[in-house]
């Protein structure tokens, strides 16, 4: 009986120790991350939808600009986005990312096809804020990922795409505003001409080395 008890005690001690080690590991893992580190968004916000349009031909150029399908952003920006997602889930919605970190080579690709500074940042002068890893093109969908009325499609360069929502249907206006209110509350700034484009109010430098894995 005594030996069974000892064995039982040893098992408990071992389990507790493993638990401690694992939690220490998990703690060390996240404690090591700096706000400026690049992280895969889905690792930190598993419920978010990702549909990178420049990894496909469903963008204004009808051309694939990069060949990875995972959204990467600065860790500091992802922490803010996580709070926005939590707020939207409570309202019955979810975020869906159309574009996140854009390597500088992709900016040259865009410029080659569309050398027009109204639509694409001129990489000879400056790179897009997407190359800083703190900017996202983002929309809102239902919890199951279904499309809902939003101001326009991605990369629609018309008056309907700006932040004056007066020319939209009531549903489009309402949903665009819900997204905007939560993003602003979460610490992001919106682009005046593109309702889907938001930057972290905290700035980071252009990243020229990091490229997301395929
Ligand atoms: Zn953008």
Describe the structure.
- 29% of the residues are buried.
- The termini are far apart.
- Helices cover 36% and strands 14% of the residues.
- It has five helices and seven strands.
- It has 214 residues and is of the alpha+beta class.
- It folds into two domains: 1-32; 35-200, Muramoyl-pentapeptide Carboxypeptidase, domain 2.
- The chain is globular and about 75 Å long.
- Helix 3 packs across helix 5 (170-185).
- The protein has a five-stranded mixed beta sheet, with helices on one face.
- It has helices at residues 2-31, 41-44, 75-90, 104-113, 170-185, and strands spanning 38-40, 49-50, 72-74, 93-99, 135-142, 188-190, 197-200.
- The model is unreliable at 18-28 (pLDDT under 50).
- Zinc ion (ZN) binds at residues 99, 130, 135, 137, 197.
- The site of zinc ion has 5 residues, from strand 5.
């Amino acid at each position: 009986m005594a030996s069974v008890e000892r064995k039982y005690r040893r098992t408990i001690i071992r389990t507790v120790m493993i638990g401690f080690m694992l939690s220490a590991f998990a703690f060390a893992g996240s404690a090591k991350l700096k706000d400026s580190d690049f992280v895969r968004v889905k690792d930190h916000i598993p419920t978010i939808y990702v549909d990178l349009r420049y990894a496909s031909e469903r963008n204004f150029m009808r051309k694939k600009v990069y060949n990875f399908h995972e959204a990467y952003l600065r860790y500091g920006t992802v922490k803010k986005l996580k709070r926005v997602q939590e707020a939207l889930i409570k309202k019955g919605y979810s975020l869906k990312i159309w574009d996140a970190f854009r390597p500088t080579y992709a900016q040259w690709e865009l410029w080659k096809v569309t050398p027009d500074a109204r639509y694409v940042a001129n990489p000879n002068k400056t790179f897009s804020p997407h190359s800083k890893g703190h900017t996202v093109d983002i929309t809102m969908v239902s919890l199951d990922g279904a499309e809902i009325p939003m101001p326009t499609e991605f990369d629609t360069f018309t008056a309907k795409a700006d932040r004056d929502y007066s020319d939209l249907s009531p549903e489009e206006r309402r949903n665009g505003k819900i997204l905007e209110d939560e993003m602003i509350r979460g610490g992001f700034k919106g682009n005046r001409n593109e309702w889907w484009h938001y930057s972290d109010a905290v700035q980071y430098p252009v990243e020229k080395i990091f490229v997301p894995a395929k």
